[in-house]
Design brief:
The chain is mainly beta. Helix content is 9%, strand content 36%.
């Protein structure tokens, strides 16, 4: 992910003042991308469940869920003025304003999945890389988009150098530096194998990750300055630390931290065995945010490789009042999106206060998916159990609710016992 230069300082300051250790839970599939919106203190995540979730970094609450893309969302990038862009396997790019439920602009033209986005240093142009073998450059104000063709296979990554030069990398093993005056390749670098991801660091250095698990360092003169067998499987994501010291590499089973100067291994930051799809450093370069196949966004100590804190606990934990109640733990995955008390308001999902006996899509003031309003469902023990047995996409198609199932009948029964106690109106 590449942020415009004018947003970097504010975003870093924001993250530096956020209490580390808060786990962001709410997706029902692999979390593929993270973007940070400096104005307002929002984090935005997206993934294979097609959901885009907007989080408050101060509280860890999911404040809104956006449904637009027809399938998985592959890329997010922050834009100036509290906006952000999303792109997915449906080939479409949506421009969003935080606080508005529908895209303010839709960019169409790609005929294959969009794999990556980048914003120009001046914040005026959006670049997209697609599996239709093309790169496109979209003006964010007036002007026609520009099409760049030169790759012979899927384009997986795109970035801008400090002077606005556009660079792309693809499965064809090519890195292309595009001419700023014409829509042609100014220079090419051909590497030994397919390329999966790329990020720019200070000093106009480019780190490129490959399907062979290797990371290579190039400078703007297109000379390869270093190479490392970072992981034993394809490199899925890269992040460079603000202080220029480190490069974080996400692979199929761990996060590896490298010395950014020579790509020497420093330590394994996290090794859960799950693929890591997105990474971002905090401003002091002491913590690293990660997201991936376990559906959770976390942060890690760069110095020790340990998880910084744990899930929110104590007085800030919305589940604190239910401490010691075993049934309550089944609900913990839901608390980021739903409140239990009438005065707590709405989050990404409607309040659950008074749930049982309530008709679906009937909480006043909540913006439901249109498809839910015509459903003839009343929430009872049986219907709530069926929701989690079959999954929201099957039982309530068109819902904004992240896909999740509870296959164990005992755990579904525990959730229902908890909800009947916690959401009662008397």
């Amino acid at each position: 992910m590449t942020l415009p230069i004018q947003l970097l300082a504010a975003t870093f300051l924001l993250l530096g003042t956020t209490a580390h250790g808060t786990e962001l839970r709410g997706h029902g599939g692999v979390v593929r991308a993270i973007a940070l919106v400096a104005s307002g203190g929002w984090a935005i995540t997206a993934g294979f469940d097609s959901r885009i979730i907007i989080w408050s970094l101060k509280t860890g609450e999911a404040r809104d869920v956006r449904l637009f893309h027809k399938s998985q969302v592959n890329a997010l990038v922050a834009l100036p003025n509290g906006r952000f862009a999303s792109a997915g396997a449906d080939g479409r790019i949506a421009i969003w304003q935080v606080g508005q439920s529908l895209p303010i602009r839709i960019l169409e033209g790609h005929t294959g999945p969009v794999a990556a986005l980048a914003i120009s240093p001046d914040g005026l142009m959006l670049a997209s890389a697609s599996w239709d073998k093309s790169v496109r450059l979209w003006p964010l104000s007036d002007g026609e988009p520009r099409l760049f063709k030169g790759h012979s296979d899927n384009v997986n990554a795109v970035a801008f150098l400090a002077d606005g030069t556009l660079v792309s990398a693809g499965y064809d093993a090519r890195i292309i530096f595009w001419s700023r005056a014409a829509q042609v390749a100014a220079a090419r670098v051909i590497l030994p194998g397919p390329l999966s991801t790329m990020t720019r660091a200070s000093g106009d250095r480019l780190f490129v990750g490959g399907m062979d698990g290797k990371v290579r360092l190039l400078d703007r003169s297109r000379v390869i300055r270093g190479e490392s067998q970072a992981v034993g499987s394809p490199v899925l994501t890269l992040a460079a630390s603000p202080d220029g010291k480190y490069l974080a590499v996400g692979g199929s089973d761990a996060i590896h931290l490298l010395d950014a100067a020579n790509l020497a291994p420093v330590r394994i930051v996290e090794a859960s065995g799950d693929p890591v799809w997105s990474l971002a450093f905090t401003p002091d370069s002491k913590a690293l945010l990660s997201a991936g196949a376990d559906y959770v966004v976390r942060d890690w100590s760069v110095e020790t490789g340990d998880h910084v804190g744990a899930a929110v606990t104590g007085s800030s934990d919305p589940m604190a009042e239910f401490a010691g109640i075993p049934d309550a733990e089944v609900f913990r995955a839901c608390v980021a999106c739903h409140t239990l008390h009438p005065n707590d308001g709405q989050r990404a999902g409607p309040t659950l206060h008074g749930l049982f006996g309530r008709r679906i899509a009937s909480v006043p003031g909540y913006r439901y998916s249109p498809s839910l309003r015509d459903m003839d469902i009343v929430w009872t023990e049986e219907t709530v159990s069926k929701l989690f047995e079959l999954g929201p996409n099957t039982y309530t198609p068109g819902t904004k609710m992240p896909e999740q199932t509870i296959k164990s009948a005992d755990r579904r029964a525990a959730l229902i016992r908890f909800l009947k106690r916690a959401t009662a109106t008397e």
